[in-house]
Structure formats: C-alpha cells, structure tokens
Amino acid sequence: AFIVTENCIRCKYTDCVEVCPVDCFYEGPNFLVINPDECIDCALCEPECPAEAIFSEDEVPENQKEFIELNADLAEVWPNISEKKDAMEDAEKWDGVDGKLEYLEQ
Ligand code: SF4
Ligand code: F3S
Predict the structure, then answer these.
(1) Burial letters for 4-42: b for 16+ Cβ neighbours within 10 Å, e otherwise?
(2) For ligand 1, mutation pick of 18, 23, 37, 41 (most atoms within 8 Å of CB)
(3) Mean pLDDT, consecutive 10-residue segments, the chain of 106 residues?
(4) Ligand 2: residues whose CB is within 6 Å?
(5) Which of 43, 33, 46 is nearest to 81 (CA)?
(6) Nearest ligand, CA 41
(7) Could you confirm whether domain 2-80 is CATH 2.40.128.50?
C-alpha cells in the first residue's frame, strides 16, 4: 500500500484524492490517510502531493515508519474523502516543517 506521512499534517492539500481510482483516502481534521486494505498500489497519488508526503510502504523513510500503522488505524475511524477541497489555511507555512506529528488531530 501507499502511506501518507507527516508532511501532510496541517497542509492537507487533497490533490491526492482526485486521482485515486478506488477512493481509499480517509479524512481527519488536519491529515489524510490511505486505507492499506483498499489501496491497489497504482502509485498515481504519489506525484500529485505538493507536500511530497506520500510514499510506497517499502519506501517510507526510517523516521516515518510509525505512519504505516497510523494510516491503517485512522482509516478505520475517519470518513472517506473522494473530492478535492481547499488546502488548510497556512498550508504553505507548514509545508516542510519538522515535528508536525505532535499537531495531529484525531
Ligand atoms: Fe489510491 Fe493508487 Fe494512491 Fe493507492 S496508490 S492510495 S490506489 S491513488
Ligand atoms: Fe496530504 Fe498531500 Fe494529499 S498534503 S492531503 S497527502 S495531496
């Protein structure tokens, strides 16, 4: 599966959801996740993310590994999102900031 990692937090550009052929993105207050059981590994979403937050599971950076489980867990509780919406206010300001995991709202 593909995994959404930390740099999505507080940006949530949502370009990714538009290209997903199986609509497997789920939306929280300031982050999106991919349901790993539904993702068909088409890789279309990866280049669409302006924040470069999406990785193939086997290419997730070492310091982002906890997001593999986070995607699986949060996809169970958050609602589906299949249409692009406006990015979060201040998305550009937060893009690339380190340590955003502490701001994750569930
Ligand atoms: Fe959807 Fe394809 Fe991305 Fe998986 S890799 S989340 S199926 S767009
Ligand atoms: Fe997040 Fe990138 Fe999608 S910032 S909402 S993974 S386009």
Answers:
(1) bbbbbbbbbbbebbeebeeebbbbbebbbbbbbeebeee
(2) 41
(3) 98 98 98 98 98 98 98 98 98 98 98
(4) 4, 8, 11-16, 32, 48-49, 51, 53-54
(5) 33
(6) 1
(7) no
As for the ipTM of the complex, it is: 0.98
Distances (CA, A) of 43 to 46, 76, 83, 89, 92: 6, 22, 18, 27, 24
Ligand 2 atom, smallest distance to 32 CA: 5
| Domain edges within the chain | 2-80
Nearest CA to ligand 1 atom 2: 42
Residue 104: the pLDDT is 98
